[in-house]
Amino acid sequence: MKQMLKGMITIVTGAGRGLGEALSYGFAQEGAIVCPWDIDEENLNKTAGKLETMKRLGKKAKVDITDEKQVSKEMELIESEFGGIDILIANAGILYSYEITEFPEDRWRKIIEVNLTGYFICAKYAARLMKKKRKGVIIQINSKSGKKGSYWNSAYAASKFGGIGLTQSMALDLAPFGIRVNAICPGNLFESPLWQKSLFQQYSKKWGISIEEVKRKYVEQVPLGRPCTYKDVINVAVFLASDRAEYMTGQAINVTGGQEMR
Ligand SMILES: NC(=O)c1ccc[n+]([C@@H]2O[C@H](COP(=O)([O-])OP(=O)(O)OC[C@H]3O[C@@H](n4cnc5c(N)ncnc54)[C@H](O)[C@@H]3O)[C@@H](O)[C@H]2O)c1
């Protein structure tokens, strides 16, 4: 089958684990040359190693996306090595969950810093390179929490709602330069470390039910009757990155099995 992203230079932030790692391999399978970024060097090396065996590694980099100097420097290095970039996947994100009156200010600020300001910084410097080629695609990994508030989740929801405003505004600024900007809003990714290592146990304890019952409770909210998978997100991201989506910009696409309708 024809690869949809052959030779496309693609930065994936938060590529060390979870969805970002899966997106890196998914894009590599479609022929993209992937530049994985992460703040966690050990996981970054693991992802880069696998991309290398797939012969699709561009340039790996330990980058903190909230640090403008690190981001601009790395973009310069990629430009000198590859002549620019074609695709940015702004995936890196964090979540801390507290009831609003107990939310520590430093944790609030950190979430906004990584999920919103980090997205802005990466998109700013990616767009500078894309403007020179008058072509490019920026995809933000948002969340269903970017469209609907949720309990104990004020900072994360605020950061993700903000991400949709940023996506739309950048889409307007960059449309004249042939650059498209869209967001994907996935549902619950049960296979992610977030759910596997923390949320299942947390909710099971909070509600006094088993992990299997927690899973059932969430899946019952999904009309299509199953959790979101990495593959569901990769499919939509590959489409948005490809020329098949050439008339789409400023959108925030739900990949939720219809969950937002319930
Ligand atoms: N897991 C879910 O159910 C789910 C659902 C909807 C949306 N999302 C979104 O998907 C994205 C990925 O989520 P995940 O569950 O794979 O998370 P994860 O915690 O497994 O992975 C996030 C990666 O980002 C990296 N990172 C964190 N801060 C960084 C920084 N300042 N600079 C560079 N890298 C940094 C981490 O080291 C980690 O490797 C996030 O934006 C998240 O909001 C996740």
Topology readout:
Blueprint: E1 9-13, H1 18-29, E2 33-38, H2 41-53, E3 61-62, H3 68-82, E4 87-90, H4 105-133, E5 136-141, H5 154-174, E6 179-186, H6 193-207, H7 211-219, H8 230-241, E7 252-255
Parallel strand pairs: 1-2, 1-4, 2-3, 4-5, 5-6, 6-7
Helix pairs in contact: 1-8, 3-4, 4-5, 6-7
This protein binds nicotinamide-adenine-dinucleotide (NAD).
The site of nicotinamide-adenine-dinucleotide has 30 residues, from helix 1, helix 4 and helix 6.
Bound molecules: nicotinamide-adenine-dinucleotide
Mean pLDDT: 97
What do we call the CATH homologous superfamily of the largest domain? Answer: NAD(P)-binding Rossmann-like Domain
Alpha plus pi helix count: 8
Described by strand count, sense and barrel closure, the largest sheet is:
7 strands, parallel
Number of domains: 2
Structural class, please? alpha/beta
Q: Tally the beta strands.
A: 7
**In the CATH scheme, what's the topology name of the largest domain?**
Rossmann fold
Residues in helix, %: 40-55%
The CATH class name of the largest domain reads: Alpha Beta
Share of residues in strands: 5-15%
Uncertain runs are none
User: Which architecture of the largest domain does the CATH hierarchy give at level 2?
Assistant: 3-Layer(aba) Sandwich
Principal-axis shape:
globular
Widest β-sheet, arrangement of strands:
3-2-1-4-5-6-7
